[in-house]
């Protein structure tokens, strides 16, 4: 007997995929987006959806499981962390006073990720709210070369950095999910 979950996937066409291509909401049958802004937004949307897919179907206990001790990282912690990061990116694009953090300082987004349905629900709500607010703030700036905020960060850099953040954490989510219940895939 072992604590190691058996590797599995719901895909039947390609065993290294998360789901079959026909069931993958990230894939479209149409042409790729036209233009740099639309392409960046499409990548961001798909990485956000990937993170949600990696978390779906799990209990609060599974979402909160710290899968790689001594790390405090968990899937629930990633949801909370990305809500915090989305909020902080809005601080980059304004000259106003910074928004206060959502969670406690000292890694609170990971340590506060406890196995409680209310915490899970709040994490999903916070992530959706913060994503929408950051999207709305950036939608006012269609010129990717425009520099914003105290540091003069280009809109393009903000979009690419957001994609990078989600892509990196989707890699973490792959490993965390596999450790939780053995599910693998792209």
UniProtKB/TrEMBL annotation:
Q: Locate the region Disordered.
A: 1-38
Record InterPro entries = DinB/YfiT-like, MST-like
Question: What Gene3D superfamilies does the record point to?
Answer: dinb family like domain
Composition bias (Polar residues) maps to 1-12
Q: Which domain of life is it from?
A: Bacteria
Name used for this protein in its record: DinB family protein
């Amino acid at each position: 007997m072992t604590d190691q979950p058996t590797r599995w996937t719901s895909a039947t066409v390609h065993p290294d995929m998360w789901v079959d291509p026909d069931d993958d909401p990230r894939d479209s049958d149409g042409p790729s987006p036209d233009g740099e802004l639309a392409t960046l937004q499409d990548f961001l949307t798909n990485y956000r959806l990937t993170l949600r897919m990696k978390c779906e179907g799990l209990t609060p206990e599974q979402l909160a499981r710290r899968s790689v001790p001594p790390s405090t990282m968990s899937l629930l912690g990633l949801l909370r962390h990305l809500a915090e990061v989305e909020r902080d990116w809005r601080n980059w694009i304004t000259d106003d006073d910074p928004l206060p953090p959502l969670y406690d300082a000292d890694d609170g987004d990971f340590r506060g990720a406890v196995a409680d349905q209310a915490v899970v629900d709040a994490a999903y709500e916070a992530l959706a709210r913060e994503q929408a607010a950051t999207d709305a703030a950036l939608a006012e700036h269609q010129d990717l070369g425009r520099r914003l905020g105290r540091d003069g960060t280009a809109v393009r850099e903000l979009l690419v950095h957001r994609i990078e953040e989600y892509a990196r954490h989707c890699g973490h989510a792959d490993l965390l999910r596999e450790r939780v219940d053995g599910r693998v895939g792209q």
